[in-house]
Write a structure and sequence with these properties.
Elements (H helix, E strand, L loop, with lengths): L1 H10 L1 H16 L6 H29 L8 E4 H11 L5 E6 L4 E4 L1 H18 L3 E9 L3 E8 L33 H11 L3 E6 L4 E7 L1
Parallel strand pairs: 2-4
Antiparallel strand pairs: 1-3, 4-5, 5-7, 6-7
Helix pairs in contact: 1-3, 2-3, 3-6, 4-5, 5-6
Length: 212
């Protein structure tokens, strides 16, 4: 609860202040205000607030050990294909590896893991995002999401899994995300008994998830 309150108090102020300022200025000068633009800008900030609150609640529930959804057999290949089909990106998206890879887990949580990794890769890719799913009998499933973007320095690869991390490099510039995507990935993967790490993709970065 302390962690949630601290994060919420810190991150919710900025979009709330922006919304209040836009509305106060427009109300003070109603005849000069572009109400259509004011509404569009305020709506954009409201969407950001909604994403931020949703992400904070996901982290709070996972870290609090809240009861999980019923675990079932989930085909990770099916999850990946569905995610790639829904992802809008200027980069080429392709999958390699198995035709089927079953893991025991929460389908919604695993879908969020894949969506966060693919979305992050697509955001920073120059031309291509590659997703590979590889199953080793008796040893689990490995999911790899790679891009050809600016990459992440080795010294920062663990730090980007922390909440609200902002890097000075090109990958760290805020492009509308909440800064919680990789934190959520790490916590959900851990809740499934797995692990996640970042590696150099030369160029770009490769996220490697191992699930039992």
């Amino acid at each position: 609860q302390r962690s949630f309150v601290a994060d919420a108090a810190h991150e919710l102020r900025s979009p709330l202040t922006a919304i209040r300022t836009q509305l106060e200025v427009a109300r003070a000068h109603p005849h000069q205000a572009d109400w259509e633009q004011t509404a569009a800008d305020a709506l954009s900030d409201v969407h950001r607030l909604s994403r931020l609150v949703d992400d904070l609640l996901v982290l709070a529930r996972v870290e609090d050990g809240a009861p999980r959804s019923e675990r079932t057999q989930v085909d990770l290949v099916e999850v990946v294909d569905g995610t790639l089909g829904r992802t809008v990106s200027t980069a080429s998206l392709r999958r390699s590896g198995e035709d089927r890879a079953m893991v025991w887990g929460d389908a919604d949580a695993l879908t969020r893991v894949v969506a966060n990794l693919v979305g992050n890769a697509a955001l920073h890719a120059r031309a291509e995002v590659t997703v590979d799913v590889h199953a080793t009998p008796g040893d689990g499933v490995t999911l790899t999401v790679a891009d050809d973007g600016p990459g992440i320095p080795a010294a920062s690869r663990d730090r980007v899994f922390e909440r609200f991390t902002r890097l000075d490099e090109a990958r760290g510039r805020d492009a509308g995300g909440t800064g919680l995507g990789l934190s959520i990935v790490r916590e959900l993967v851990r809740a499934h008994g797995g692990e996640v790490r970042l590696e150099d993709n030369a160029p770009g970065v490769r996220a490697v998830v191992r699930l039992p």
